Amino acid sequence: GLPLVGRRDTELVLTGWELDALALHQATGVASLALPRGATCLPPALLPYLEQFKRITLWLGEDLRSWEAAKLFARKLSLKRCSLVRPGDLQPRPLEALNQGLNLTKILRAALPASHKSIVSFRQLREEVFGELVNTEQVAGVKWARFPELNKLLKGHRRGELTVFTGPTGSGKTTFISEYALDLCMQGVCTLWGSFEINNVRLAKIMLTQFAAQRLEDQLELYDEWADRFEDLPLYFMTFHGQQNIK
């Protein structure tokens, strides 16, 4: 079937038998090829002939062996561009489907994608895994400058990770978390506070005092200097306080 394929064709149906390719071309007009050694063999020498196609549908036969071969060939040809016609009573091989008066175009449109949006293979993850191994320190997250013991426990502040700190009233949760957040914020980590118990003015006062590392109420002449520096941090506060409607 190769002489019938044009250079501009981007879709192809791959079959396991010459008469299947002829039946498909006759019934649908789509570019169709037959594998020269049958439905269970895809010689590597043929792969360059298939590079021009953006979509390849494998309709190899009506038995389990052909179905398994189709899944194997799809991995060779790239799962993203392959679709498979699953064998069945209503989806026999193309020649048989034509003889039964079935709609071959409809069968092709119902072909299953070889890849699944929710399933990946290690081959697809391989380069990303290598990247994580090469950049071990970066993957570990942003380290705290002032909390080496915390770095040992959490390995740094990592994307996609949620940490919950608990403790009784007055144990220092807010004081510590504001130090924890300030440490990261000073390293450029964009920080958003949702403080429902302590209002934003009081919270900002605590953090500014921690940032300046001194009691600014005793040295008010330094307030503007420290406030200007504090203002440059990527720090934001939600305006919610107290009980809120869930919406």
Automatic annotation (TrEMBL):
<dbReference type="InterPro" id="IPR027032">
    <property type="entry name" value="Twinkle-like"/>
</dbReference>
<dbReference type="GO" id="GO:0043139">
    <property type="term" value="F:5'-3' DNA helicase activity"/>
</dbReference>
<dbReference type="InterPro" id="IPR007694">
    <property type="entry name" value="DNA_helicase_DnaB-like_C"/>
</dbReference>
<dbReference type="InterPro" id="IPR034154">
    <property type="entry name" value="TOPRIM_DnaG/twinkle"/>
</dbReference>
<dbReference type="Pfam" id="PF13481">
    <property type="entry name" value="AAA_25"/>
</dbReference>
<feature type="domain" description="SF4 helicase">
    <location>
        <begin position="136"/>
        <end position="247"/>
    </location>
</feature>
<dbReference type="InterPro" id="IPR027417">
    <property type="entry name" value="P-loop_NTPase"/>
</dbReference>
<dbReference type="GO" id="GO:0005524">
    <property type="term" value="F:ATP binding"/>
</dbReference>
<protein>
    <recommendedName>
        <fullName>SF4 helicase domain-containing protein</fullName>
    </recommendedName>
</protein>
<dbReference type="GO" id="GO:0005739">
    <property type="term" value="C:mitochondrion"/>
</dbReference>
<dbReference type="GO" id="GO:0006264">
    <property type="term" value="P:mitochondrial DNA replication"/>
</dbReference>
<dbReference type="GO" id="GO:0003697">
    <property type="term" value="F:single-stranded DNA binding"/>
</dbReference>
